[in-house]
Amino acid sequence: MPPAPAAREKVLDAFESILVEHGERTATLDAVAESAGVSKGGLLYHFGSKQALVEGLCERLTARIGSDVETMRAAPEGPAAFYVRTSLYTGSPLDRTIIATSRLAQGSYRSAVRVLRSMRQRWFEVIVESVEDAAVARAVMLLGDGLYYNAALNGDWIHDVTGDTGTSVTDPARVDLDELLGVVADLIRSRTPADR
């Protein structure tokens, strides 16, 4: 597939940023055009409607998930450990596209809901294939969900505002990934074929 034109990507970047920073209601065609530095006509050339922008963002997420799944399958540490390790929000392009698409799903865009469900299903299938146990795969997915949620509640913005690093051993927001990955490895090892 040939690369998307730069102006089209610029419009999608602007749409994504507005969704992440301000939510779905403020992501009007006028606001997206202004943020992208293009005329409304230029925006409409690439995306004929807000629904077309939504579909464009869903396609972007599908492509980014495809790349993530390939990386996950090839990860030397294995897909389960890769999933847990990458469940911390880092502001990566994939993170931002997931957040933006989530905002659309909250705004009742069914295509956004579908692509988010597909994303989770694809990750789940790779983990199940690797650990050969659906219950363990679900536990790994839920652990990743918890890490993502924890990052949302205790993100870098808290440190920026308060200077608090959240590193106290008794702080439930403290994340020691190596410790959690050890728990995941123990869980995978503890499930014998007779348990499945």
Written overview of the protein:
- This protein has helices at 6-22, 29-36, 40-46, 50-74, 79-85, 93-106, 110-131, 134-153, 156-162, 177-190.
- With 196 residues, the protein is an all-alpha fold.
- It has a domain at 75-195.
- It is elongated.
Largest sheet report = none
Q: Please report the number of helical segments.
A: 10
Please state the overall shape, judged from the principal axes of the Cα atoms.
Answer: elongated
Distance between the termini: 41 Å
Helix content estimate: over 70%
Number of strands: 0
Unreliable parts: 156-163
Mean pLDDT: 87
Alpha-beta classification: mainly alpha
Assembly category? single chain
Order of helices and strands: HHHHHHHHHH
Share in β-strands = under 5%
The radius of gyration computed from the alpha-carbon positions, rounded to a whole number of angstroms, is 19 Å
A few lines on this structure:
With 196 residues, the protein is mostly helical. It has helices at 6-22, 29-36, 40-46, 50-74, 79-85, 93-106, 110-131, 134-153, 156-162, 177-190.
Secondary-structure blueprint:
Elements: H1 6-22, H2 29-36, H3 40-46, H4 50-74, H5 79-85, H6 93-106, H7 110-131, H8 134-153, H9 156-162, H10 177-190
Which terms summarize this structure?
mainly alpha, 196 residues
